[in-house]
């Protein structure tokens, strides 16, 4: 039913069957003149309706159309959304979807250090509306299947070969930008517009992944060993400082005892006070010798009685 010529032939066959059955029922002769006039009118109206239907075509939203003429070939005019006229049989509308369409291409390529990398590149592409007649002449309607796989693989291999495998991770923004610029220029040669280019997946070989993991573990172990060494150095330095402080303290105490004999008596009184405070906090009852615990502060000291 999409072919107007087939519809016209089908209507003619139905009219012939109708008039043939009328002649058989009338019993002979030719068909009545009234029936011929009615049949001719029906044929004319049907032909006009089919011609009007075949002369119109509709371009949906987000689409553009061009015309192919049997006489002059592809015409340069581009038709936007809506209903348009055409000459049946002589002109055929070619409708293109000009909305951005996603395409994902997977490519296995090698890096600068000879590592194999599996990359998935996703692009949003659409045809240049002003160049639809050229696209139809050179690529046809399946332009994306003809162009995108080849140029994406070519650009990925040429760009990735400039970087090491580790740089694909650390410099991913730079790699994506270079791929986008190269792909955009290559697609314009085929009158295609790329709205977006992104690297969705980057997968390395199992051997390289194991090597990266081992390298990370070794770096962590080295950092841990360096921390242990630094801590040992700090402890050594603190021990030296503490020993120097204790030596200086002993030196000062010796000088104080030598120059001021009352220093020992002061220390004995301080020690007696500390012992008394500790025993005061205890809940037990104790009977102790005050002299042995240095609590008999009234006893003459060794400073007053050197013979003791």
Weakly predicted, low-confidence segments: 22-28
Helix count, per DSSP?
A: 8
Per DSSP, what share of the residues sits in E-state strands of 2 or more residues?
15-25%
What about the largest sheet?
3 strands, antiparallel
State the distance separating the first and last CA atoms.
136 Å
| Secondary-structure class | alpha+beta
Q: Kindly state the mean pLDDT as a whole number?
A: 80
What features would you highlight for this structure?
alpha+beta; 308 residues
Please explain how this structure is put together.
- The protein is α+β, with helices and mostly antiparallel strands and 308 residues long.
- The chain has eight helices and eight strands; from the N terminus they run H-H-E-E-E-E-E-E-E-H-H-H-H-E-H-H.
- It has helices spanning 4-26, 33-54, 132-138, 143-160, 167-170, 172-188, 206-259, 262-281; strands spanning 56-59, 63-69, 73-74, 82-85, 91-97, 101-110, 116-127, 192-204.
- Strand 6 and strand 7 form a beta hairpin.
- The longest helix has 54 residues, at 206-259.
- It is rod-shaped, with a radius of gyration of 51 Å.
- Mean pLDDT is 80; it is low at 22-28.
């Amino acid at each position: 039913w999409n072919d107007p010529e087939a519809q016209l032939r089908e209507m003619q066959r139905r009219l012939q069957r109708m008039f043939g059955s009328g002649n058989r029922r009338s019993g002979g002769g030719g068909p009545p003149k009234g029936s011929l006039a009615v049949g001719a009118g029906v044929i004319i109206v049907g032909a006009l309706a089919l011609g009007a239907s075949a002369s119109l075509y509709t371009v949906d939203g987000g689409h553009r159309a061009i015309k192919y003429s049997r006489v002059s070939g592809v015409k340069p005019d581009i038709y936007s959304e809506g209903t348009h006229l055409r000459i049946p049989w002589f002109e055929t509308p070619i409708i293109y979807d000009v909305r951005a369409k996603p395409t994902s291409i997977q490519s296995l390529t090698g890096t600068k250090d000879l590592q194999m990398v599996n990359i998935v590149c996703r692009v949003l592409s659409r045809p240049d509306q002003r160049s639809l007649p050229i696209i139809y002449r050179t690529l046809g309607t399946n332009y994306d299947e003809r162009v995108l796989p080849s140029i994406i693989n070519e650009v990925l291999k040429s760009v990735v070969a400039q970087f090491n495998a580790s740089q694909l991770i650390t410099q991913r923004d730079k790699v994506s930008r270079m791929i986008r610029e190269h792909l955009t220029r290559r697609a314009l040669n085929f009158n295609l517009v790329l709205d977006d280019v992104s690297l969705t997946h980057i997968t390395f070989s199992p051997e390289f992944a194991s090597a990266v993991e081992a390298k990370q573990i070794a770096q962590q172990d080295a950092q841990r060993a360096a921390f242990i060494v630094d801590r040992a150095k700090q402890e050594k330095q603190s021990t030296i400082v503490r020993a120097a402080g204790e030596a200086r303290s002993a030196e000062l105490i010796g000088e104080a005892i030598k120059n001021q004999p009352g220093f020992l008596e002061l220390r004995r009184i301080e020690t007696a006070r500390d012992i008394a405070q500790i025993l005061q906090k205890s809940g037990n009852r104790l009977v102790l010798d005050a002299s042995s615990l240095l609590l008999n502060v009234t006893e003459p000291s060794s400073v007053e009685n050197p013979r003791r």
